[in-house]
Write a structure and sequence with these properties.
Layout lengths: L4 H20 L3 E2 L12 H10 L2 E4 L4 E4 L2 H39 L1 H5 L3 E5 L3 H10 L4 E5 L7 H15 L4 E7 L6 H11 L4 E5 L6 E4 L3 E5 L6 E5 L2 H17 L1 E2 L5 H21 L3 H8 L3 H15 L4 H10 L14
Parallel strand pairs: 5-6, 6-7
Antiparallel strand pairs: 1-3, 2-3, 4-10, 5-8, 7-11, 8-9, 9-10
Helix pairs in contact: 1-2, 6-7, 9-11, 10-11, 11-12
């Protein structure tokens, strides 16, 4: 039997705590009201019994805890096997579609479509999956923090790890704010373990995927509900140049040294100052920084406290009097 996310959530939120208590007490009475039918701990108790972590000792009418190491393999191994089977199946499908894609690219019909292909809504995901499946050498991606939820990151992890395992190179740019996302950290760990490189920047940039420096996919609208695939060599070369310039200024995602983290904090502070001076609204400024409007408001509040001002107008005046522009070079004292 395999267990899903709901079982794991129940295990982590309730069953594990109940198990710890039972271990400390060297068991729990079968008649205990907490685990009886309708009791507050009935659901986590049933999961522990189903997993084999509790065994009933009928001689004393008491549930006795079992060593979790003997149970873990029965739960984890089927999941690992299922994951391996899914990855193999996806690779087989990718290879099957790869031959079709090559035939399409060689056909006159492909050339007749021109250098730009517009995609909308549900057509974007399958197109990207097919494009990544036929990567031969290199993939460059720029991913602003906004819009990367757990589901999209999980799908990207499966898609990108399969490509990396074929031996391609991959470089990805995020905004600094992505470092605070647990989901993004898991994705980065998965792809980095397979050779990908990930860096972060303070500045806003738009979403982009470039495959083998021959096809680039970029948004066609601000709401990300449409995209355009670009095959015009001069435009793709231009987009790659933008990526390379940004990449040189990026900081490795996996670098957790105190000096790097201080520099990142100073860069986000400077970006906040520039947004204030340029007069952008909070939603626009938050998007530029890759954070929520609430987080951005917190950044502004920190600056007010730092300059001992109560309003944004007073803050702007104080920074102007101090000659602060948000363009100052980062040094250790600023950080």
């Amino acid at each position: 039997m395999t267990y899903g996310p709901d079982d794991r959530a129940l295990f982590a939120d309730g069953a594990a705590t109940l198990y710890d208590e039972i271990v400390m007490n060297e068991g729990i009475a079968a008649a205990d009201a907490r685990v009886a039918e309708g009791g507050p701990d009935r659901a986590p108790f049933e999961l522990l019994v189903e997993l084999g972590l509790l065994q009933l000792d009928k001689t004393v009418d008491r549930w006795i805890p079992e060593d979790p190491n003997t149970v873990q393999s029965r739960v984890v191994s089927p999941l690992s096997q299922q994951a391996a089977q899914l990855l193999e199946e996806s690779s087989q499908w990718a290879r099957a579609f790869g031959s079709l894609s090559q035939s399409w690219r060689r056909s006159p019909l492909s050339q007749a479509r021109g250098p730009f292909t517009y995609l909308h809504l549900d057509a974007i995901g399958p197109f990207l999956a097919g494009l990544v499946s036929e990567v031969e050498e290199e993939m460059l991606t720029a991913q602003p923090q906004a819009g990367r939820d757990a589901a999209s990151l999980a799908a990207a992890a499966l898609r990108d790890t399969a490509a990396l395992e074929r031996g391609i190179s991959m470089r990805t740019l995020y905004q600094h704010s992505a470092r605070r996302s647990a989901f993004t950290a898991k994705y980065v760990a998965a792809v980095s373990a397979r050779g990908a490189e990930v860096r972060t920047l303070d500045e806003f940039f738009n979403r982009m995927i470039v495959v083998d420096r021959r096809v680039a996919v970029i948004p066609a609208s601000d709401d990300l509900k449409s995209a355009v695939a670009v095959r015009e060599p001069s435009v793709v070369t231009y987009l790659v140049d933008i990526f390379e310039r940004s990449w040189e200024r990026g900081r490795p995602f996996t670098n957790r040294e105190s000096t790097t983290l201080k520099d990142i904090a100073a860069e986000q502070r400077a970006m906040t100052i520039r947004m204030l001076i340029e007069g952008h609204s909070d939603p626009v400024s938050a998007k530029r920084l890759g954070v929520s409007p609430r987080t951005y408001a917190g950044y502004v509040a920190d600056l007010k406290a730092e300059y001992e001002q109560e309003t944004r107008f007073q803050l702007g005046y104080a920074m102007g009097q101090a000659g602060v522009s948000g363009q100052e070079p980062v040094n250790d004292d600023d950080a």
